[in-house]
Amino acid sequence: MLAEINTFLSDLIWGSILIYLLPILGLFFTISSRFVQFRYFFKMFHILRETVRDKEGHISSFQALMLSVAGRVGGGNIAGVAVAITLGGPGAVFWMWVIALVGMATSFFECSLAQLYKEKDGIDSCVYRGGPAYYATKALKQRWLGVVISVLLMFTFGFAFNATQSFIISTSFEASFNLPTWITGLALTLVFGVTIFGGVRRIARMSEVIVPIMALGYLLIALVVIVLNLDKIPSLIVMIITEAFNPSSAIGGGIGAVIIQGAKRGMFSNEAGLGSAPNVAAVAYVAHPVQQGIVQSFSVFIDTIILCSCTAFIILLSGAYTPGISGVQGVLLTQNALIEHIGPFGGVFVTLALFLFGFSSMIYNYYLAENSLNFFSKGNVTVFNIFRTLCILLVIWGSFQDLSSIFAFSDLSMGLLAIINMIVIAILYKPVLQLIRGYERQLKEGKVPVLRYNDYTEFNFDKETWKEIVDNINDKKD
């Protein structure tokens, strides 16, 4: 009975509410900001190149970006795209691109808000905390809403998703290398434990190393496939666009199924608007909130336009995919396609990529949960250590437990989180537009933008935190 209720509510939230709410609000944010994600796309490289660093060791904009990509890029980039293509055909890839380009604006808005309303960590003064719980509490003055958001984040990402990731990784290694799940689970738990007990800065440093390796490795293997099939690329692009508007008869549900599958893949993959990425965006040490908004919108581009497209091209350039055949999907379809392109190594590579993608997601998931805990505990070391121990135990437990029912319930809680977050940022869109105008005004004046915190006295953010950041940056200029 509970499972049926959960399925009904999950289908209602994702299939009847978010499938429309996310793209509509994303389009609204895009138009109201005058297409900010495209106007400042190349500005992101300049921001990262001139990342603010200081002797106290604050987390940089690049580290925050990598931690965010660690969460956005996961097993879904390998398995989820394959499912979308199986159920929605090649045209689903086009709609996946569209939802990502619009979602970049949503990510910009929520991450700029997270930066503006961030506060200092209770344990480490060089670390900042922020996210939907913080800007809902401060900007809307609704602490109860912040509590609900924090609970949903903690359960969804800290407990359920991490235990499930552990199960996926362990069973994948068992299938590929005949390695018992408990051995993989122990190894995974050890590395995970060392990472999270090192605090937020160690988590950021680990992501700074792992994410570029996994992303570039997967991109490289996709480029090899593309080069081997270079003559087929133009016709493949034409097929994707054509199938997006005129799907073949083999695709059940017609164009509606194509759009829904592409949109779902885009939403699940890039997380724009779901309320998770702003928690990470808040930790970056930047001179102006808009800077991290620009950078975080790029993480959506990396996840969907680049890495999800890699999987789509690997599958569609092979003979492993047959339209209308739904028997082989997910990781197996991607593995079969890569084996066809480069031989047996392809299957091993997918398993290793799944491990890196999954582990980086676990680090990211834990950080979201820790940030939610901080909303309640405000830096209580004992509480944090107990929580970390519980998360570690759940990882090893999850390595040999099929948690599909828990994962299904997590989809429901994440959907609720997304609805709450999207409503909140829709209410708070005007402060973001003011931040954009202030940022652009300084650029026109030929200045390096910093947050002029006294210009926003009507906003209930931590002005002392921003005064310290801006004063520190100005001192370095002198």
TrEMBL record:
Domain of life of the source: Bacteria
Keyword Cell membrane: yes
Coiled coil region boundaries: none
Sequence intervals crossing the membrane: 12-36, 64-88, 94-113, 144-161, 181-200, 209-230, 236-260, 300-322, 342-367, 379-400, 406-429
InterPro entries in the record: Na/Ala_symport
Cell membrane listed as a keyword: yes
Localisation per UniProt entry: Cell membrane
Membrane topology (UniProt): Multi-pass membrane protein
A single MF term (Gene Ontology): amino acid:sodium symporter activity
A GO cellular component entry from the record: plasma membrane
Keywords (A to Z) from UniProt: Cell membrane, Membrane, Symport, Transmembrane, Transmembrane helix, Transport
Predominant location: membrane
Pfam families linked: Na_Ala_symp (PF01235)
Family: Belongs to the alanine or glycine:cation symporter (AGCS) (TC 2.A.25) family.
Protein name: Sodium:alanine symporter
Organism: Arcobacter ellisii
